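Run: sequence + protoporphyrin IX containing FE -> complex structure.
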Amino acid sequence: MRIFPDHPSGTRIILPRGLTACISPISVARDPRHWPRPDDFDPENFELDAISRRDPFSYIPFAAGPRNCIGQKFAILEEKTVLSWIFRKFHVESLDTLRNRRPIPELILRPVDGIHVKLKRRF
Ligand code: HEM
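>> structure
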């Protein structure tokens, strides 16, 4: 392995041929070098300005590069559709904290027994 710490676009590492590398998207998304308050959900992190100032590989739930997720736009639209439907009808309160949810790695990384929320009808 060769490391070039002073490469103009950041530290560059050349890995040996044939090496299997595992990348943990949750660790990348909580890296304090890119996220000032890594455990908080801050919607402002996703404003176009903030995105353009950030390393493009600092948020990779859909992977990155030539084999990234082709369903990304569809998945985000689907999430917005479902979540906006729920939030229009209910106040949603989380009964959990990030720290008391044990994540298990399956096809995706998910909390071991779901996320507990309290729903209160808005009207
Ligand atoms: C929240 C939802 C989703 C997440 C987080 C997600 C995440 C990912 C990730 C991380 C990869 C790269 C896997 C790898 O490195 O081998 C991937 C690939 C892929 N995803 Fe998704 N995905 C989502 C939804 C979808 C949907 C809705 C579709 C299809 C409608 C889809 C189709 C694909 C396909 C075909 C690939 C393989 C692309 C390739 O290898 O060239 N995904 N996805």
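>> summary
Residues 61-63, 67-71, 74-75 surround protoporphyrin IX containing FE (CB under 6 Å). The longest helix spans residues 72-89.
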